[in-house]
Amino acid sequence: MAPASSWKIKLLYDGDCPLCLREVDFLRRRDGGRGLIAFVDIAAPDYDGTANAGIDFVTAMREIHAITADGQIIRGVEVFRQIYALLGLGWVYRWTRLPGINRLANWLYGLWAERRLALTGRPDILTLAAQRCTNGRCKRSAI
Hints:
This protein has helices spanning 18-31, 57-62, 77-86, 90-94, 99-119, 125-132, and strands at residues 9-13, 37-41, 65-68, 73-75. The chain has 143 residues and is α+β, with helices and mostly antiparallel strands. A four-stranded mixed beta sheet has the order 2-1-3-4, covered by helices on one side.
């Protein structure tokens, strides 16, 4: 097992999203225990945005986020580009850098991000956030 400090990208993912989990499982297998990617489940009850570049639950749920080892926050399609490149699969997303394709890829991802909760039979983001705020566990600013 690689040391915790060896990660290059910290991926914030929704562990309650079946399609997201399928992708994360694939990425874990590709990482092969090297620890290049730190996986952080934002749906976990103990998710703490302050430990993840200040990215609160609602912000993280709106679209995929990652944090590079040097603290840079990346989001959307760029997350997939960088993670796949890190794992030696950069060619999969390389085509999305082409000017017209870049716009299309970002638009398509935006549609998915906007509709994924409904498509997977889950409540909207604010309802999920409110459900997390039981027993005084969260701050109003997280919503």
